[in-house]
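#struct-help
A.M.: can someone run this one for me? Single chain, 471 residues.
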Amino acid sequence: MVILALVGAGIAIPLALAWTRGRAQRRAREEVLYLQSHDPLTGLANRARFTERVGQALEHIQDDDVHMAVITVNIDRFKELNETLEHQGGDRVLHDIGTRIQHVARDRDIVARLGGDEFAIALTDVAALSDVMAFVHRLGSALTRPFHVNNREVVLTTSLGIALAPADGDTADVLVRHSAIALSRAKLDGGQRMCFYEESMDKAVQQRHTIEQDLRHALRRGEFDVVYQPQYDLETETPCGSEALIRWHHPQYGIVAPGHFISVAEETGLIVPIGEWVLRQACSDATQWPEHLTVAVNLSPAQFRDGDIAETVADILHETGLAANRLELEITESLLINDTEEVLAKLNRLRELGVRIAMDDFGTGYSSLSYLARFPFSKIKIDQQFVRNMTRDPAMRAIVKTIIALGESLRVTITAEGVETQEQADILRRLGCPQVQGFLYGRPEKATVHADKAMSGAVPMSRLPKRTSAA
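D.P.: on it. Structure tokens below:
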């Protein structure tokens, strides 16, 4: 019996080991296959699996005479949110978003995480557009509920892009691409909204891609230039500084104004190296001007998000030799809307360098006054829409008067932008506005021309405002 038992064990043990190894190998293969087709963080299908399943579903809608909707979802400003969350908080949010989307979707729908903070849903049998809208409503309700991460309540917004089959495409790749294009349009429109794909969007995306590529070449080839619009002291009628404005000398289209490319530079992050180049060039040019003249340079929110803006400014001032008190950095309210404490800390570091900080386009936002209370700006620039309309709208004139009085009480310099007529200049003088900027006093000019006029300190007689008694 002992011998038989030993023989049996000799046979059974190798068989058991072989079976165990086989099972482990099968599990390993299954795990590899799973990882190849699923997102490890959320457990949802990945981009490859999503495209494959959408392709399979498209074969059936041709037979069943139904439609399909591919919806791409992106979290607004997720990068900034992720930077404020500790201990993998961003991953927790992404996991919970995937779970909520899955709960809203039906069993026959296809849900995936395409990568980063981008998700996709394919509604596989849509009978009417109302079905898509009903799903979007349910999805919006699910995603606007607060998320709880590391003992913190997080509220976020999302943007959606939607492509319909077969109208917007009859292959998975085309539908996914078109829904992504619609999503990009939703983000460009400010986020927290949805957009259906339109053919014109495709052309716009191609155009933006072309501009992006041209901008990269422009940086490398030195196609940018800086021009300067003078700012004048209304009381003495002499120049007191200027604002640096970028121009692009495109080899094919000639001079391109900022309005045609700055938004693309912002979206792609190219605004950071472009903005640094403008800052360095402006500081260098200003060293050739009389020492009482300042130079103002606009800063993008991206320059605050990426890198150490105070260190960059300090390095440029040291490199060019420009005195810190001759540099004004202009920001808009959009910079202060998100991560206010961090931004205010960086602004304070800039002030410690000795540079001046100006709030541009004052009055166009909703919280400008609260920001004035939290940060001591050196200058407030009245947005040109108020200056343009104050000659015919008493309410606009009252707003301008109030801003000027506010600046006087806070001991902050006020500059009125967009002064183009003698009447506007006369009104601003009566209201006590100390500084002006606009075509009446000079158009943007190259550094050398600007320097020559600054040296003379003269204004063309045809543009000199007439002195009037104070109101």
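A.M.: thanks! The two ends are 122 Å apart (CA to CA).
D.P.: also worth noting: The first helix runs from residue 2 to 37.
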